[in-house]
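Deliverable D5.2: sample structural annotation.
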Amino acid sequence: MFSKSPPLLGPLAMLSCRLPSCRVQRSSLSSTSAPPVHFPTSHTESLIRRHLAAGDFSSAISLLLRSARSSQPLPASTLNAVLASLSRSHQFDSAITLFHSLRTLAVSIDLVSYNILLNCHFQTGCFSLALNLFDEMRHSGLAPDVCTFNTLIKGFCRENHISDAFKLLDDMRVEGQMPNRYTYSMLIGVVSRSGCSNSGMGLSIIREMIQLGLEPSDVNYSCVLAAICKDAKVKEAKAIYGRMSKVGIGPDIWAYNCFINMLGRKKMVTEAKLLFVDMFSQGVIPNVDTHNVLIHGICMVGHVEEALRMLKDMLTQGPRPSTVTYTIVMRALSGQRRLDEALMLLNDLSQQGLSIDKSMYGTLLYGLCKGWRVEDASKLFQQMDSSGFNDIVSYNCLIRGHCKMGNLEAAKKLFVEAEAKDLKPDVVMYTTLINGFFKIGDMKAAQELVRDVGKKGLKPDLIMFSTLMEGLCEMESFEAANEVLDELVKQGLEPNSAIYTMLICSLCMAGSINKAIHFLEQMSLKGLKLDVRSIRMLFRWDDARYKFRESCREPAAAFG
């Protein structure tokens, strides 16, 4: 990316360096060096600058060293010119070595020198050395300027020390240094960056810049707009977009995509489409990602026909649809049970020689299984297998489809096949099969699978325990259900309201009101709330029991 000058093995190798850096080699001055030749200061400065302009850093440093040993040292501006040239050519270690070596000689060092060295330390990753140099600069009586603060803020931003960077911003104001556009741009960049996004802080910086008369750049606005959209703040996004329109600045393609994506996810599709059209007036051409987020939003509100038209337009006018585009449309078709159209779309892709990825297959496999098209799902599964796309997720999906249809033999066969392919069955697969066997009333097979989970060293999760509880309760095996409840606690899991509700409702339906009340008391002790369905059921059974007892009193009186 940058052209680098050759390392300075001549004059710098002769410097007596006491630099506390992890990257710089130490060497000593030769005791047999030639006596210095004196030139007029202005002439020496001119020669040094000529050498720097020609990229001859070695000759420039040689002249600088001669001057440093003479009775006519050069001004700090000459040293700064050399340091700046080394820094621009990315020879940061050489600049650091030169700086620390010349400090022992009669060379003037000013604030600019320190600023350059601070940047060099940050560039070499020596964060602590940069801070030490800053403290040293203060102790020498030099007050930091805007450049100093900007260099430090840049270093903090690179290390993601956001709070420290903003602390420096406060320090700037206290010391009477006015932050400039570069200061604010760095802070906007770090608070908008993926992984540490804080759209609120970004918006505050934009407002502060406007109040100070520093109009943010298009990049500043776009960064903050994208961050706001990721946080799904519609009102704030519209405010920023309105401000940009007012000052004649348009978002970049990334910010537009984030904005359209947010509107689509909020099901504000009409506004998303208006924004899509507005891109052209701003001279920003929508790319495939723009089309994808808009199609996704259109599909979210169920307008699949419109999504298909957009896909057709992309095929004829561009940009070329990506695998993500097709996956979005396939998922929408599957969601509306338009599975034949989804299969046709997949076949069209295959005939066109376009690559079909794992996500496409997976989306369609899930849709077929959910739509009770397990036979078609099995055929697609075979295609996936021949393409090497089958993994534990696809096996789980097809096993769930077979269990849904009551085809437990086919499901068990897939389970064995997955093990044979060294695809270790997970808790999800076991839970699906356990649920399937309970649904057909085969409690023995379900319990065998539970034992197998323990043998394989898998740890049951709350969903598996809930499935067990549901199956046992449906078969009125309440003692076994109670044992499962105890085991759940032993595993360090806490029964939730859904598990208790399931057990209480089943006990009520079986007429075991006292047991149901016992578990209701347990819930109360744990601070869990019973849902309305269970409360109604308890009252209904308790009221029936009361009426039954009342009806028995009169006949009982006949016995005296």
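Annotation notes: The CA atoms of residues 487 and 497 lie 17 Å apart. The radius of gyration is 37 Å.
The annotation will be released with the project's public dataset once the embargo ends.
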